[in-house]
Amino acid sequence: MKKYMKKIKANGWKIGFLAPAMILFIFIVAEPFVRGFIYSFTNWDGVAKNYDFIGFKNYVKFFRDPTVFLPIRNSFLYTVITVICNNVVGLALALALNNKLKGTKIYRTIFFVPFVISFVLAGFLWSYMYTDVIGALFNINSLLGNPKTVIPAIAMISLWRDAGYVMVIYLAGLQSIPQELYESAKVDGANPIQKFFKITIPMLTPAFTINFALFIGWGIKVFDYVMATTGGGPGKSSETLALYVYKYTFNYNKVGYGQTVAIYMMILVFILSGLTAAFFRRREVEM
């Protein structure tokens, strides 16, 4: 016992530094998660002091609820568009700015700056752009008002804001690739395309792991862009899973079912992000 007490005293300062973060985590993340998990087994409306435990009825209801399929479809469509577009554009920017020429640092900063803007502010900004700028210039209705274009239009907000972040990750990966590999390939007669696919892409696999896994998770649980631009409209054509959870929890006063959908969404994010990360990690090349 004395031995353990000495260790605690010796490492007390470390615990002191960790304590504030741990307390915040417990009260902001852990406790609400546990409480929400408990509510998913109830019929609580969010207002009443009393509620009944109904077992797995909410979990079974999810698979029989026809209204949930459109939010799932919208979330997947948004995720596919943002994952592909952000990674393609981010990689292209990184390749273009991966040099020591004059002015590249300025361009890197310019492309990264939108990422520091909040989701809500970016949504309001582009809502104005789509309605009063792009619509007026090209004499077309807002893309946010068309059920066929609303999800791609919201995804383009993510492209504008987040591509700079992807670029930074790829830039870090590009700058960690040993130049000797390119010099050896040049001696062997490899052309730029062969260098790109045989050296650059394999060596960037850790960056692919980060960018693909992150954006799949962010895409499935997207809320801010949709809430700030359309609120789920027109109709419910842009309603995502996260917005579906919000409406059932706060608008429809069905906290139990709303938390159930949130649990399923969390499981989906973990599975898809985990499978993606595992897929790329198996293909990582050791330097």
From TrEMBL:
User: Can you say where in the cell this protein is located?
Assistant: Cell membrane
- Name a single GO biological process: transmembrane transport
Looking up InterPro entries in the UniProt record yields:
ABC_transporter_permease, MetI-like, MetI-like_sf
A Pfam match is BPD_transp_1
Highest taxon of the lineage: Bacteria
GO (cellular component) term, any one = plasma membrane
ABC transmembrane type-1 domain location is 72-276
Keywords of the record: Cell membrane, Membrane, Transmembrane, Transmembrane helix, Transport
- Membrane topology (UniProt): Multi-pass membrane protein
Q: Which family does it belong to?
A: Belongs to the binding-protein-dependent transport system permease family.
- Recorded protein name is Sugar ABC transporter permease
The organism is Vallitalea pronyensis
